């Protein structure tokens, strides 16, 4: 039975009013409405302000947000963001239970919530859907938080349960980033801050790559209102420069295989017992065991310099107290310059290998060595490139209190995100050089750092010369135009009706071009370069945090070079100036994906006078989305065997294809919260949410990889514009005990049943009628002469020497290692080349369930406190490492935990924060394009911040990120199958802030 306001207990009445004030704004995902509602109600309820200072006050504000919202909501207010030693918002979000982050270069970049990866979490700015671009993850939906600084953000809200008024796209969570509004904090407020940043990862680089040792950060905030409270202006700006680096060792193309121990069909498998070479295998995998062998391995050092600029202007006008209008402009720019050098080798899977193996049914080698009849190449690779990402948004909001019972809001914005090259050398590039002097090559995986040894290597008598190269130019732009109208009508005095409509027009366009030289066997003579251009550096010193870096057998040198100088010399020596620069004039691929969504929602909330008072909110959202995909198709015309293992694809011509699709969703929601007693709540939520497919999953048009492999063929990818969004049916239960103003103990459980999951499938198929010389008549003649399938140098030498001048065969000379140079083109009579083609289909279902425990406690007035949480996530849909077929599994699923120690008094503020994330599946396709798992190992990191308040105006801060210098690792089908290990380093900051 519905109760009237007269029968409400005073506690329930105050609870609901506070809910309308503090969390009702969150329900409509509007910063203007949030702060307007808060200020309007504070005078009646004396509710605490959301924007506060001091750890205890901020903790209390966070609890109010959580306690008074419909559904399960967590968040962080401005003081928390400022107090945490966090580089950006992602690192702030990781402190919330159920939220874990992906790190890039030691910095938080993207978030995973309750086991659902970045693409299934929607990020809003002041309630608005934001575009996002990321050249490292072209056409993904995941928001890159590394573009945003945290200085000007008032609060972060994480909505873990669905509601009718929530925009769609977040199955894991909807994250609302809210910025300050001057009329909600009358008067003049301003401050400036400076920091000096020392990133020790920059010190662990070769001298040629090191950047500035200490870098600056500046920020300033100004807010002011007129005396009559009608006008307000807010300005914030920040500039951050960071010099950093990371060093990585690993198998960029993963492992070959897996092969069955009894397999005798593939030339790259281990000899069977009793066959020649089998005596060199220790503890050979059994006949029914699966084994994998390394394909390539390298050590790389990476120097990164970044400049991040953020700014926002807010203008507010309140002509009458019932109407507030807001115009805001937001800008961010993130510029990143990268220099890298790498030393790597390629394993040919020869039958003359020596290896040792662990026991087990799925294994990779402990040690693996190959012996060669002719010298092989040692690859010395370098890159020098830069990118720039800009985000721009202009928005208008009008909030009108039409009557004491009706509020109406209109909001519109135009926002763009654009990423592209910021270097004359493109968005990414690679100059590959080689010394053809490698004999026996061994890799030892028994150390934390895999140890590569090449005792016969002789780079003095066989100097480094130019080999292949590629210059990429990637560009991506996303645009969102959105208009929203919403309202809230109070019915009687205990119920309210929320309603709204919205229209969103989003576009994502990406282009890509590649200029590649396939002279992997050698394009120049050593005499073309001065002897000083390649500088030897002690390789082991760049991995000194990893066991094995000081192994005596480790190859001792990593070579660096000046990229611009070597590029110019190579272009001059080859007479091919245009071949060593990116193509800015045209694109090899050009894709555009448009989504137009119309939606409406209705939600009814009321309080009930029962034995246990409770509040209910029931609603539904309906959406109609139209998808249009336009894609440029670049057909392949030929396959050319140019060097030992490489089969580049020749392209010619292009055309465009257009495909349309549409879908409609009705998404119901029910949220209940029960007042078990004044300090205790029980919540229950049920509803449906959707997560839209990635743009590259939707975009039509077949894309071929630019280079194939003798053993595995080619790679390709194609999207599916008709993909439906993943639809999740969600159940949530939460118990919350607010036993003190700044303390809480909560338990939560969740269950998500997802359908229409776009499973990634790899299909082996011929494309564009492309024929490969591998397996053709010339190839078979070479096999008949005594060459083996694994000895590609023997095969090429035979074909080039016996069939030069015949159709498809052209010998161009002799390489420095004595092998012949030339091109062998696939003929119409040769076999069709198979391409490992990645595509997507709505054919998967999955269930994710888990639990969260969260405690926040302040020890009386001692100033000490603790925050701790743990999230357990599981799914029956797991990757089977013993299954060699294509598999579907949920990416990013992992347990996570946080432990934060706190101390605060009038002068000092200290936090020590430990964040941990368990092992998770990062990909079901490895670097070589094969269907294979990539797991990220468990990772823990400790951060510290110390603040000292000198007086009411001046304060100082000292911060440390990754204080314990943790390293990261990824592995394959078994824990021992190292794919890569990464070492970075701690980061230290010293700063001061002055308030006017």
UniProtKB/TrEMBL annotation:
Keywords: Cell outer membrane, Membrane, Receptor, Signal, TonB box. Residues 262-288 have a biased composition (Polar residues). CDD domains: ligand_gated_channel. It comes from the Bacteria. Coiled coil: none annotated. The keyword Acyltransferase does not apply. Residues 1-34 form the signal peptide. It is found in: Cell outer membrane. Residues 66-167 form the TonB-dependent receptor plug domain. SUPFAM superfamilies: Porins (SSF56935). InterPro entries: Beta-barrel_TonB, Beta-barrel_TonB_sf, Plug_dom, Plug_dom_sf, TonB_rcpt_bac. Residues 260-288, 413-433 are annotated as: Disordered. Residues 453-963 form the TonB-dependent receptor-like beta-barrel domain. One of its GO terms (cellular component) is cell outer membrane. Belongs to the TonB-dependent receptor family. NCBIfam families: TonB-Xanth-Caul (TIGR01782). This is TonB-dependent receptor. It comes from Duganella aquatilis.
